[in-house]
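User: Second chain of the day. Same drill as before.
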Amino acid sequence: MYIKTGSPLQGKEKEKLQLFLASCHLDLDPALDFTVLVMQEDEIIATGSLCGDTIRCVAVHPSHQGEDLAAKVITALVQRAAEKGISHLMLYTKPHNGLLFSPLGFHPVIRTGDCLLMENRRDGLKKYLSSLQMPEHLPAPVGCIVMHANPFTRGHRHLIETAARDCGALHVFVLSEDRGLFTAKERLQMVTDGCKDLQNVYIHPTGPYMISSATFPTYFIKDKQRTEDIHCQMDVQLFGEKIAPALSVTRRYVGTEPNCPVTRQYNDTLRRLLPACGIELIEIERVQAQGDVISASRVRRLIQEEKWAELPDLLPEATLRLINAIKGELTCRIPSECRKT
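Assistant: Same format as last time:
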């Protein structure tokens, strides 16, 4: 028995991993950064992988369960993450697998009927919430917005400004994923700088506790048609049961969604589930410019086409300043097939 690793696996080893995971009723996650394989002769008997700060695709062959192979895999993954400077790890899995991972140092964050989210820090969510910078007593009502802001547009600013007028205090969470044209740090800076004049608005990074549908892991979900619903259910349950009560949030604000069916479905799920948590969903009409609704995807398309002169109508000054400062770097981030020719 020996251990092999890949960063990530390629070729025949990747194909062999895919077949092994299929035999364990799991899919191969396409976004894996690093994989551990426990081998017996030339056969995989256990595996696990990293994708950023999440552990994914952990599986042990049925004939080798009870041999502490999962512990070997998790130990190797934790060590690799530490080498990359990552100490806080998250894990999404089937609900019944909590018994497997609890002895390995993982603690439940939220459990739904389809998914269990765990982390390797005891009371990690509680500590995260207590670390948020804000006054001790916020005037009611307290509202909340969660946004990607990739990038932060005049539409986002309108949503925040409108909600802030409606609330005593407003929490704005910016997704901490480093996915998309702009980094998490850049997006948080845009929103922070773009809302400095709004005295009752508090800007926070989401950390690992809110995840977009684009990065929600699906390798353990059998019915792929339910993926969006499963993600929405987990996200809403975590927000409604854990995050909102800690912050006294009673209102959640979203923009109307005329174009994206995924976002529209997510808003519908919020509308259906949040009232049971004592939270009202309020939709705010999207603003328009140049004859169409302002959207981050529209801005990204203009950047890809290098139509810089059209951006001021769509973006606050804070976003324009950042884009001008990194314009050359942005061009390099655009996939070659999407660049202007």
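The domain at 135-338 is CATH 3.40.50.620 (Rossmann fold).

User: Great, on to the next one.
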